């Protein structure tokens, strides 16, 4: 009888499940608009980096998360763009047993942490194929990015009320 009560107790609680189904490149771009001229002068790079994450439900308990990284590198000698690289690294995640704020946090912070190393490697490979020095991106604190995004959303809702 005690076993029946335990089984009912576990059935009432939603069981947390998290699994990575697939990691893939959704979009990729590399441009070196000023080559070969950029290779004929001293290279003093200035890096501009833009990072964003998105997520959407694509099925029952299935979510696509995308980390978009854009790096524009110019040469300080003449401020001309040396190269522009953009990668949208995506993943399919099966998540159940989470809802509301927990699910939002998982999709906005945890999943991007899983995907970012793949985006870094992809960017480094593209930059190397363009014959430029490696662009080793520093790790990103997606927890802090998520918190900032939540804070901006809260401030925006406060101003509309």
TrEMBL record:
Keywords: Chaperone, Cytoplasm, Protein transport, Translocation, Transport. The keyword Flavoprotein does not apply. It comes from the Bacteria. InterPro entries: SecB (IPR003708), SecB-like_sf (IPR035958). Its main location: cytoplasm. Transmembrane segments: none annotated. It is found in: Cytoplasm. It holds the Pfam family SecB. The keyword Amino-acid biosynthesis does not apply. HAMAP family: SecB. PANTHER family: PROTEIN-EXPORT PROTEIN SECB (PTHR36918:SF1), PTHR36918. Belongs to the SecB family. Homotetramer, a dimer of dimers. One homotetramer interacts with 1 SecA dimer. One of the proteins required for the normal export of preproteins out of the cell cytoplasm. It is a molecular chaperone that binds to a subset of precursor proteins, maintaining them in a translocation-competent state. It also specifically binds to its receptor SecA. NCBIfam families: PRK05751.1-4, secB. This is Protein-export protein SecB. The lineage of its organism: Bacteria, Pseudomonadati, Pseudomonadota, Gammaproteobacteria, Oceanospirillales.
């Amino acid at each position: 009888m005690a076993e029946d009560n335990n089984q009912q107790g576990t059935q009432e609680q939603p069981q947390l499940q998290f699994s990575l189904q697939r990691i893939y490149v959704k979009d990729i771009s590399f441009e070196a608009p000023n080559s070969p001229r950029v290779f004929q002068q001293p290279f003093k790079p200035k890096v501009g980096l833009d990072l964003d994450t998105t997520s959407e439900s694509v099925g029952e308990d299935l979510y696509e998360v995308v980390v978009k990284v854009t790096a524009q590198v110019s040469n300080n000698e003449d401020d001309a763009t040396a190269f522009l690289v953009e990668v949208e690294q995506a993943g399919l995640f099966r998540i159940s047993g989470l809802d509301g704020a927990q699910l939002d946090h998982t999709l906005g912070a945890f999943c991007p942490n899983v995907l970012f190393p793949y985006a870094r490697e992809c960017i480094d490979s593209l930059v190397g194929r363009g014959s430029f020095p490696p662009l080793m991106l520093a790790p990103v604190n997606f927890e802090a990015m998520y918190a900032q995004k939540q804070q901006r959303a809260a401030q925006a809702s406060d101003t509309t009320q």
